[in-house]
Amino acid sequence: MLESGCVSVKNEVNIMMKNVIDIVLGGFTYWLFGYGMSFGRGPLTNPFIAIGDFLIDPSVGDPLMGPIFAAFLFQLSFSTTATTIVSGAMAERCNFKAYCIFSFLNTAVYCIPAGWVWGEHGFLNNLGCVDIAGSGPVHLIGGSAAFASAVMLGPRMGRYEDGIAPLPLGNPVNACMGLFVLWWGWLAFNSGSTYGVSGTKWQYAARAAVITMMGSFGGGTFSVLFSMFKNDGRMDVVDLINGILGALVSITAGCFLYHAWEAIIIGVIGSILTCVTMPLFDKMAVDDPVGASSVHGVSGIWGVIAVGLFADNPIPLTTTNGRSGLFKGGGWYLLGVQCLAALCLCVWGVLSTFLLLWVINKIVPIRMEVNEELLGADLMEHHVRHGQIGISPLAPLRSQLTEEKDVARIGMNPGHDRYIETLKLAEMKLQSWRDYGEEKVREASAEKSSHRRFSNLARAVPIFRRKTRTEGEISTSDAPRGTFSVSHQV
C-alpha cells in the first residue's frame, strides 16, 4: 500500500502486482534453494554459503520438523520483504517481465548474507555479529539492492527537469495506510525474533515491542519538526512516513538490547539520516520513488552499527555472546564486528544486484519502452485503464495502441456502458424530434399572427373593403372613386 500510494495513478496496480510476484516467485525459490543457502546442514556447507536441505520438507519422524517449519515460515517473510524493498525503487519504469525474473532470482541475493549473520556456519555469526530482527540482512541488503537497481534503470522520464523536488503522490491516503500496516507488523517481526515465549523470552519479546515503538516515536518527532521547518510550517507526507520508517529500521537490529531513552536517540538519528540522504540521492540523479535507498539502506547501516554502541548483555539469553556495546563498557570488539558486517552486507547488496540485473538485461530489457512509460504500466502491462489517463497524446509516436484503446476504464462495466450509450442516443433523437415540433409550432403561430394583424388593419381603414375570390385573393376593385386596390395571396 505504501509503494502504490507513492507512485503515479497509472502505475499503482503494477506496483501491487510486483509485490504479489515477490510473494509467489520469491516464496517458491526460497523453498527451492533459499532456505538451504541460509541454513542448510549439508556436508558442503562453508562459512560463505550453506548447502543442503533444498526443497525443504522434513519427515514426520524428524525431531526438528516443527522448529524447521517454524523457522522456514518466519525466514520466508524476511526473504520476500527484502525483495519488495527493491520493487519500490524500480517503480514506474521497470519492465514487468524482467522484474519477474529478478524476483525469482533475488532470493539468492538475500539468503547468502542472511546465512553469514544468522546461520551457524556464517563467518559474521562466528565473529559475534548481532542482528536480532534484520537491520542488516533484510533492510540493508534490500536498501543496497534498491540503490543499485535505481542506478541501473536510470531516472524516470522528466524526473529532474524541474529540479529535485519530490513528485506528487498518486494516493497519499494509501501511503499513510501502508505506514500503519508496516508499523504494527514491525512489532510482530521484532517481538517474534526471540523465537519463543518460554523462560525469559517472553519478557524480552515484550521489551522488543516497547523499544520498537519508542524508536518510532523519536524518529517521528524529528521528522515532524524537520518537515515543518523545511516547508515553512507545512507537513510533507513523505518526510513523515519515511522518517518513522527510518527509525524503525534503525531499532530493529537491537530491538530488545536497548533502554527506552536509547531507543529514542537511535530512532532520531535514523530519521535524520533518512530525511537528509533522500535529497542527496536525488542530487546524484538516483531516482528512488519511495526513498528505499535511504530508509532501508542508510538507516540499515546505522541500525547495525548502533548495536556496537548501545547494546546490553541480555542475561540469560546468549544473543550477544556475553558482550556489550562500547557505551556499556564492552570495549571496541562488538563495534568493530558490527562495522565489518555493515560493510560486507552493503558491498554484497550493491554488487550482486548490479550483476543480476546486468544478466537479466541481456535476456529481457529491464527498462520499459518510452510509450509504455508514458501511458503507464497499468494499461500496457495489465490492461487496467484509469478514467483520468488518456491515450490520444501518444499519437505522434505512431504507437500500435489498437488493443489498448479497447480496454475498458477501471471501475466501469462495459455491458452497462453499451446500454447507457443506447439510451443516450434514443434520448438525443427524441429531443431532436421535440425541437423540430416546437419549431414548426412557432412558425405556424408566427404566420397566424401576421395574418391577424393584416385583417385588423383592413377593418380599421375605411377605404379598404375586403372581397374574397375563389383563389383566395383580396381585392378592392369596387372601392369608391379616388381609392386604390390592394391584393394579397393567402
From TrEMBL:
GO cellular component, one term: plasma membrane
Coiled-coil annotated spans: none
Protein keywords: Ammonia transport, Membrane, Transmembrane, Transmembrane helix, Transport
Major location category of this protein: membrane
InterPro entries: Ammonium/urea_transptr, NH4_transpt_AmtB-like_dom
Pfam family for this entry, one: Ammonium_transp
UniProt record similarity statement: Belongs to the ammonia transporter channel (TC 1.A.11.2) family.
Name of the protein: Ammonium transporter AmtB-like domain-containing protein
